[in-house]
Design goal:
heterodimer, A: 438 residues, alpha/beta, 9-stranded mixed beta sheet, 5-stranded parallel beta sheet, 18 helices, 21 strands, 37% helix, globular, B: 266 residues, mainly beta, 13-stranded mixed beta sheet, two-stranded parallel ribbon, 3 helices, binds iron/sulfur cluster
């Protein structure tokens, strides 16, 4: 007899869908089928079932040969590395639960490390802008039930957050949005004609790198001030029409992604988008929300926020928290040679960072904690395989709208495997022994 | 004026924070006392004397103290942080945060400086013979007060984000600048003698930006008003005057709306 686990939370993207159903084998060790999830979400569950999955820690020697080591050896190597470094970097944290993040931060404080999460290469710029000008936001529930003007700026939910539009933003019939997508106006701003853009009522096919100008132009249009004939390749009339569409809505939501956070102007684009949202609130209700990628990158920001006051790029090396992206951000630290050890958990900088940074990781004492052998493991000295959080381990995660959701354990991890949190707790204990702190 | 000379010897493995290298901290101290000052390399605390040979002696007060750094200090941050008086001469290039939150006195760097120099500057003078990095004279993250007073003069080029949230003082760049000049400015003057790129004066509430060379793309919220003859830092010329940013809030004086201004030289 197989059984169905209901109300499962998908630990893949920031949409954090919480309506999945998973069919597991009788003994609770195997996932047979996943219902309701999108393709990428399903893949995440099925991946944990791979037969060739790594189950023991491995260390790499100078020649690049891997050998199996015990979990105790892995704990000791990690603790020694962190304690001996003058400025270790502890990076990742977006694909694990808040419990593990919190334990990792505790270690960072004791060893005087820099803690940074994947926001550093995606929505960190958003966090900078929020700190500069504040943020009028809302929950996805409010979007579903109230929003009738939806803007997707520099993001492509059709591919990156596949169920976002059906669950929250475009299609659902909510309390005050009984007509579903028929009563919603959808505006997409993207230099490419993406699958999301193809669905839009208005697609502003903007010139690359001119988001700051177009957002500014919308603000000028909202105020009814004069505009040049074209801005960022978009005719004045279109800009004025879009401004009118937004002003005439009952509830406007601007969703934005890495197309604006990591292109020219970065934080300034978001700063301007937030300012536009603020301006729109003089006419109607408006909110803005980042399309966070990894399922719990928002949680890492939350945990760092309540523990140290800053959501990413937290430098604890001097014994107090300092924060300044550009100085305390992972890529700047690596590029400039400011760190002397690298610990990675719940992310894959080997695949996402510039090659110059990856080369630096390869030269330093380094540890990669991940269920899979990733491009990051390939350059690290130690690879520590762990259980899949959200599949084999429960724990707290924050959705893109900052709503915390408890993820569920669906199956048992393979015999003898520990979770991120368990591994970090062992490292913490060893670090305390080495440092002689109670 | 007495002079303390710092000659770099050992290079740190990583970088050092040396916010003690100021006339204020050095004042009244002997070379031996100065060599015993703390510097920080990551989570380790070391001595200034490990990285520099210290000679000469400081004056009785900051105003009577001059610090000469003989050579490059590319791995030293925070030189001249919060200084209120006196002088610092760096004969080579320096790293980040030079003159951050500086309140008075003078810093002269013969080489280049890196990002966040003159952050939140309140007074005094910084002169750089080479180039400056990003965020020159800008606000610290999350602060709405960038440079408030004083002068920064760069003879080479400067990076992006200069004068962000600036509300007083003057920044003069002889060369070119990267994107974002005077973003969110609420006062102050920025003079770019070379070329600008784009995003100049975005979200500016008040203040003046002069560009002698080209501007790739003008922000859509700027409106051309008229031509004016001006003398700017010794150069007499005709400038096109633009007012903006029209998308931003603006205050009023005697019933007239006060805008930010961009002047572009013909
Ligand atoms: S949209 Fe995101 S959270 Fe929802 S099922 Fe797909 S990957 Fe999972």
């Amino acid at each position: 007899m197989t059984k169905i686990v209901t109300d499962v939370v998908c630990p893949f993207c920031g949409t954090l869908c919480d309506d999945l159903e998973v069919k597991v084998s009788d003994d609770g060790t195997q996932i047979l089928e996943v219902y309701n999830a999108c393709v990428i979400g399903t893949e995440k569950f099925l991946h944990s079932q791979a037969k060739d999955r790594l189950k023991v820690p491995q260390m790499q020697d100078e020649e690049g040969n891997w050998k199996d080591v015990s979990i105790d050896d892995a704990v000791d190597y990690t603790a020694q590395m962190l304690c001996n470094a003058k400025k270790p970097l502890m990076y990742g944290w977006s694909s694990t639960n808040c419990e593990a993040q919190s334990t990792g931060n505790e270690i960072a404080e004791i060893v005087g490390a820099v803690v940074d999460n994947t926001a550093t290469v995606c929505h960190g710029t958003t966090l900078i802008a929020v700190q500069d000008v504040g943020v009028p936001s809302c929950t996805l529930g409010e979007v579903k039930n109230r929003a009738d003007r939806i803007v997707f700026w520099g993001c492509n939910p059709a591919h990156a957050h596949p169920r976002h539009m059906s669950r929250y933003s475009i299609f659902p019939r909510g309390f005050f949005t009984g007509k579903g997508h028929k009563a919603r106006k959808m505006v997409v701003v993207d230099p490419r004609s993406t699958d999301t853009a193809k669905m839009a009522d208005v697609h502003m096919q903007i010139e690359q790198g001119r988001d700051y100008e177009l957002l500014s132009a919308l603000r000028v249009a909202v105020r009814g001030a004069p505009l040049p004939e074209t801005v960022a390749g978009i005719p004045r009339e279109t800009i004025q029409d879009v401004a009118e569409t937004l002003k005439s809505g009952r509830f406007v939501v601007i969703f934005f992604g890495m197309g604006v956070t990591q292109t020219l102007s970065k934080n300034h684009n978001i700063d301007m988008a937030i300012s536009l949202t603020r301006d729109l609130n003089e006419y109607t209700k408006a909110a803005i929300m980042p399309m966070r990628g990894h399922y719990n990158v928002t949680g890492s920001g939350q945990v760092l926020g309540w523990q140290f006051g800053f959501p990413f790029c937290v430098d604890l090396s001097r014994g107090f928290a300092r924060y300044n992206p550009g100085d305390s951000s992972s890529n700047d630290l690596l590029r400039r040679g400011e760190v002397d050890a690298v610990f990675v958990l719940g992310s894959d900088p080997g695949a996402h960072f510039p090659i110059s940074s990856v080369k630096k990781i390869a030269q330093l004492p380094s540890v990669c904690v991940d269920p899979h052998h990733t491009p990051t493991s390939a350059v690290c000295k130690l690879h520590m395989p762990v259980a899949f959080v959200g599949v084999e381990e429960a724990g707290c995660a924050y959705r893109m709208d900052n709503v915390p959701i408890e993820t569920r354990k669906v199956v048992e991890a393979p015999e003898g495997m520990v979770s991120d949190e368990e591994f970090l707790k062992m490292v913490l204990t060893r670090v305390k022994e080495i440092k002689g702190v109670a | 004026m007495e002079t303390v000379t710092l000659t770099p010897k050992a290079q740190p493995d990583l970088y050092i924070d040396a916010e003690n290298i100021t006339p204020d901290a050095f004042a009244g101290k002997t070379a031996a006392e100065i060599a015993a000052f703390h510097v920080h390399e990551g989570n380790q605390t070391g001595l200034l004397g490990t990285y520099f040979d210290v000679s000469g002696k400081a004056g009785a007060t900051a105003a009577e103290t001059k610090i000469v750094i003989k050579g490059d200090v590319l791995k030293v941050k925070y030189i001249g942080m919060r200084m209120t008086a006196g002088e610092i001469l760096v004969e080579g290039s320096a790293d980040m945060y030079i003159g951050a939150w500086m309140e008075g006195g003078r810093i002269h760097v013969r080489g280049n400086i890196d990002a966040f120099s003159g952050t939140g500057m309140k007074g005094g003078e910084i002169e750089v013979d080479g180039n400056a990095g990003n965020y020159l004279g800008a606000a610290y993250r999350g602060d709405w007060r960038g440079m408030q007073s004083g002068t920064i003069r760069v003879h080479g080029n400067a990076g992006s984000d200069i004068g962000t949230f600036m509300n007083g003082g003057t920044i003069i760049i002889d060369g070119d600048v990267d994107v974002h000049v005077g973003t969110h400015a609420e006062g102050g003057t920025i003079i770019v003698k070379g070329n600008g790129k784009s995003k100049i004066g975005g979200q500016m509430v008040k203040g003046e930006i002069y560009v002698f060379g080209t501007i790739d793309v003008m922000m859509p919220g700027y409106v051309y008003r008229k031509d004016v003859d001006l003398e700017v830092d010794g150069t007499k010329a005709t400038f096109a005057m633009y007012e903006g940013d029209m998308g931003e809030r603006h205050g009023k004086r005697k019933g007239e709306v006060i805008y930010g201004h961009i002047y572009q030289k013909y």
